[in-house]
Amino acid sequence: MTRYYFDHNATTPVSAEVLEVLVPALLEVYGNASSIHGPGQAAKQRLEAARRQTAALLNCDPKEVVFVSGGTEADNLAIFGSVRAHPAGKKHVITTAIEHPAVLNSCRELEREGVEVTYVRAGSDGLIDPDEIRRALRPETVLISVMHANNELGTVQPIEEISRIAREAGVLLHADGVQAAGKIPVDVQALGVDLYSISGHKLYAPKGIGALYVKSGTPLRSIQFGGHHERERRPGTENVPGAVSLGCAAAAANAKLSDESARLAQLRDRLERGILACVPACDVNGDRARRTPNTTNIFFDGLEGEAMVISLDLKGFAVSSGAACSSGAVEPSHVLLAIGLSRERARASLRFSLGRSNTEEQVDALIDAVSESAAQLRKLSPTYTSA
Amino acid sequence: MSGGVDSSVVAGLLQRRGASILGLTMQLWNQRRLPELVPEGGATGRCCSLDDVYDARFVAQHLGIPYYVVNFEDRFEEQVVRPFIDEYLAGRTPIPCTLCNNFIKFDQFLDLAAGVGAGRIATGHYARVAYDESSGRYQLKQGVDSAKDQTYFLFGLKQEQLARTEFPLGGFTKPQVRALARELGLPVAEKPDSQEICFVPNGDYAAFIDAYFREHGIAPDRTRGEILDSEGRVLGEHEGVHRFTVGQRRGLRIAAGEPLYVIATEPASQRVIVGRNQELLRARLAVKDVNWISIDAIAAPTRAHVKIRNKHVPALATLYPTPDATRIEVHFGEPQRAVTPGQGAVFYDAGLVLGGGWIE
Question: Shortest CB distance from A307 goes to which of B30, B74, B116?
């Protein structure tokens, strides 16, 4: 069975160019980047080159890049690190209801520690209204955390406007950029953020590497304790092959960004048009203009998204629905619920996220497969009656 | 695939037969809910526990078959757990396994399987299904292992459901199934058998209902009331009508000269009526929502063995049709102890399941 992969927001395969630098790095760059001898210095040199490449993707100073293990750690470090660095006393954090669990559950943990958190709701278009952020501000607000692009809908949040609000109020702004980096231009200075998370495996680097942008001068307390690595911000022997991979992936993403995003947008629109034309009673969730070029989230009336995922997987197509819980079963997406969709509609929605390997032929094959699976499942659906 | 021995052997047997198969596990209940019920050290051995899903996935990988976990939590709560609680509060003793079979497993799950391309489902039930040419019906028969027979829970199955169902273990005894598991090299061959009601830890359904009430902010005193004898004398008080089932002796906390048993529960007044063992005997009962399986229906009084709870030895009786075709009256040859409203009454003729319904 030929397998076609349409789940790039979950993860991406390691690209050929990354593999080309990763394997030699694993073999040859074995030194501890903190060691003073030759092998250590060689590792340090590669680490800093990777930091410069990563900084170039974000348009920041390399000194502002902290390598971490991935998006979850970057979000945890940004949130706990900045809130804990703030002087003791009453503290308040603003985030949104559509964040990734790495942010949402960090904020819930902050609440257990006595910090108050406001979860701003998104509109039915999947977008955050900056005025809602402004209204949530309190004198004791210390941090605003809003994702740049949403993982389920692809919707791109108005970070620049939110950063103006944060700056006026003298509050730090963190943006989870895991789903944005490599898909849309990211310029942390233009965005006006203080903290920005990225993850390697969402842009064709391996799992286990990510980075947090920490704007120069931002107070940040380490959340793990150990050696003096990463300018005292993240202890632990540096994952040099990981960093080298992320640097390479960042450079590739930077070089390909405008061509690739135009190509993906065209494919994504072809997919969306095809499905809307071939499958009765379906609809796109969220705003269709302000979103990443590779993502579409489609509601199929009367269908179980989970059954569609299984049916498509058995035909060789990897797509996703909701979030996997610990057993591997699918739970309705908290993002779709948070933008006001019913549990039924959330459960009946599928996310298609495209990437470098996808072609027009694959998209056309996917349209046929979706159409066939939907028809097959709808024959048996108790809630769907064709008009 | 529950991750247990039975359904794992089913997968192994079908694969050995050369069938094209797909493994599915139903996620029915979120074990993180009602944490007060979870014993120290975690929730092992309960349905939908991560350990069971791990085992099911391991078996599927061992056999090299596609495998998925499907989420039925919302529907299970709506169609099994809430009715289960409501039945207790209405003074009846429900069978959640039958509700699950009727509304989830052999209904929506069967449809999901068909929707993803599986024309038939196979489960680890100890029961047999066979098509009978002469009557043109799918017949349900007891499994050969009478100690393990599960037909009591399957009385609600319709013909179109049986037509798409296989019970590959019906011809085996449990020891034979264990031996097959070893022969197939299944990693769960030595796993202990599972408990009775999958979502209720340690069979303590009253504790489950109390915890569910707390989760939903329902005041527990709503179900408290008096304990009376059949002459109406108040003998004591109880902590909740859902804690009692007909025939129960434990938990009454009444000092009396002779052993007392629950004769009935009256949900409207929240009263529990107790009496002597003698008072539990009934020669007749009425069955509603009767589903006929191996035969079309009965037009005249018919002799059958009737089973009135899972551990009951079927007793000889006569089935009397009533003007309402879905209602049957059962007259036992010998009075039976603890006829319990809400339980199933299943009619057998020498191992053949004629049909069954709910005791009124």
Answer: B116
DSSP, residue by residue, B34-72 = SGGGSPTT--TTSTT-HHHHHHHHHHHHHHT--EEEEE-
Helix (H) / strand (E) element for A255: namely: helix A240-278
Cα–Cα distance list, A52 to A14, A64, A251, B46 (Å) = 20, 10, 10, 52
Q: Do B66 and A313 touch (CB under 8 A)?
A: yes
Tell me, yes or no, if B73 comes closer than 8 A to chain A by beta carbon.
Answer: yes
**pLDDT of B219 strictly over 80:** no
Give first-to-last CA distance, chain B, whole Å.
34
Q: Determine the distance in angstroms separating the CA of A103 from the nearest CA of chain B, rounded to an integer.
A: 21
Q: What letter does residue A291 receive in the DSSP assignment?
A: B
pLDDT of residue B249: 87
Report helix, strand or coil for B81. helix
B351/B337 Cα distance (integer angstroms)? 22
What's the token pair of residue A284? 């796109």
The reply to whether residue A329 touches residue B70, judged by beta carbons under 8 angstroms, is: yes
Q: Does residue A384 surpass a pLDDT of 70?
A: no
Of A107, A248, A278, A325, which one is the catalytic site residue? A325
From chain A, pick out residues whose CB is under 8 angstroms from the CB of B69.
327-329
pLDDT digits (tens, 9 = 90+) for A220-257: 999 999 998 999 999 999 999 999 999 999 999 999 99
- Number of CB pairs, chain A paired with chain B, less than 8 A apart: 55
Encode pLDDT of B63-83 as tens digits.
999 999 999 999 999 999 999
Determine whether A325 is an active site residue. Answer: yes
Could you tell me which residues of chain A have a Cβ less than 8 Å from any Cβ in chain B?
304, 306-307, 310-311, 313-314, 325-331, 343, 376-377, 379-382
pTM of full prediction above 0.80: yes
Task: Give the residue among A382, A364, A363, A349 at the shortest CA–CA distance from A281.
Answer: A349
Cβ of B71 and A376 within 8 Å? Answer: no
CB contact under 8 A, B116 and A331: no
Q: How far is it, in rounded angstroms, from Cα B83 to Cα B95?
A: 10
Please state the ipTM of this predicted complex.
0.87
Structure tokens at B43: 């929730």
* Inter-chain residue contact B68 with A325, CB threshold 8 Å: no
Classify the C-alpha dihedral A283-A286-A290-A294 as positive or negative. negative
| pLDDT tens digits, A264-294 | 999 999 999 999 999 999 999 999 999 999 9
B198 catalytic per annotation: yes
β-pairing, A195-199 vs B271-275, is unpaired
Closest CA to A211 of A55, A61, A334: A55
pLDDT band at residue A385 using 50, 70 and 90 as cut-offs: low
Q: Determine the pLDDT at residue A31.
A: 96
Question: Interior CA angle at A211 toward A207 and A217, to 5°?
Answer: 170
Structure tokens at A22: 């990763």
Per-residue pLDDT tens for A40-72?
999 999 999 999 999 999 999 999 999 999 999
pLDDT in tens, A88-128: 899 999 999 999 999 999 999 999 999 999 999 999 999 99
Tell me, what's the pLDDT at B221? 67
Task: Give the Cα separation of B351 and B347 in Å (integer).
Answer: 10
Cα–chain center distance at A72: 10
Top residue of A1, A314, A327 to mutate, by most chain B CBs within 10 Å, is: A327
A311/B50 CB distance under 8 A: no
How far is residue A68 from each of residues A62, A143, A233, A239, B217, measured CA to CA in Å?
14, 21, 10, 8, 43
